[in-house]
Amino acid sequence: MNRMSDITEALPPHRVVPFITEEQIQHRLQQLGKQITEDYRDVHRPLLLVGVLKGAAIFLADLVRSISRPVEFDFVAISSYGKATHTSGEVRILKDLDASVAGKDVIIVEDILDTGLTLRFSYLMENIRNRHAASVSVCVLLDKPSRRRVPIEVRYCGFRIDNHFVVGYGMDYAEQYRNLPYIGIVEISE
Ligand code: XMP
Ligand code: MG
């Protein structure tokens, strides 16, 4: 079996500095779950949480368990905007929803909102609206507002952060660190 050091040796030398603890994440999740439960208390339509793979998988798994009302969940995969700087916006939906969203209140769950280009140019929200969802809103674990290039209305946000590259709790650096129970900042060594 590969040792961690064998895997990470392929990457530039770097370290991961603890940033948001497991306890802070879990505490904020309880608050978000409570807020969502309250907001949809008198709504008698199905509530569907749609996680954007892969980064939101762990956040969504914990979030649904902090909501005390019936909730469905599903996942989509969209091709990453990556490091592209152009705004012509070729972003595709790689894995679509499994079931109909008609008549459901949908919350799109993202790990982190950065420039906003992926969400905008995947037309994910428009797509879900066009399929007659009752409502569509956005929930992000992390928001980097200073990096935004297109406006995105965020209804639920875990933490607002400065412009750091973060990993852990579902988020990756070259597919590594998704399994960290906390969020860390990647510092590339000189
Ligand atoms: P935007 O909003 O720029 O975000 O379209 C696109 C995707 O980029 C990822 N992203 C990150 N992933 N650490 C990560 O692991 C980060 O600091 C980071 N910033 C952006 C994220 O998947 C987002 O959906
Ligand atoms: Mg993502």
TrEMBL record:
Domain Phosphoribosyltransferase: 28-173
UniProt keyword annotations, A-Z: Cytoplasm, Glycosyltransferase, Magnesium, Metal-binding, Nucleotide-binding, Purine salvage, Transferase
Organism: Chthonomonas calidirosea (strain DSM 23976 / ICMP 18418 / T49)
One GO molecular-function entry: hypoxanthine phosphoribosyltransferase activity
CDD domains from the UniProt entry: PRTases_typeI (cd06223)
Pathway: Purine metabolism; GMP biosynthesis via salvage pathway; GMP from guanine: step 1/1; Purine metabolism; IMP biosynthesis via salvage pathway; IMP from hypoxanthine: step 1/1
Enzyme's top EC category: transferase
Cofactor needs: Mg(2+)
Gene Ontology biological process terms in this record: GMP salvage; guanine salvage; hypoxanthine metabolic process; IMP salvage; purine ribonucleoside salvage
Recorded catalytic activity of this chain's protein: IMP + diphosphate = hypoxanthine + 5-phospho-alpha-D-ribose 1-diphosphate; GMP + diphosphate = guanine + 5-phospho-alpha-D-ribose 1-diphosphate
Pfam families the UniProt entry points to: Pribosyltran
UniProt-listed NCBIfam families: HGPRTase
Family: Belongs to the purine/pyrimidine phosphoribosyltransferase family.
Gene3D superfamilies (UniProt xref): 3.40.50.2020
Localisation: Cytoplasm
Name under which the protein is recorded: Hypoxanthine phosphoribosyltransferase
GO cellular component: cytosol
EC number, UniProt record: 2.4.2.8
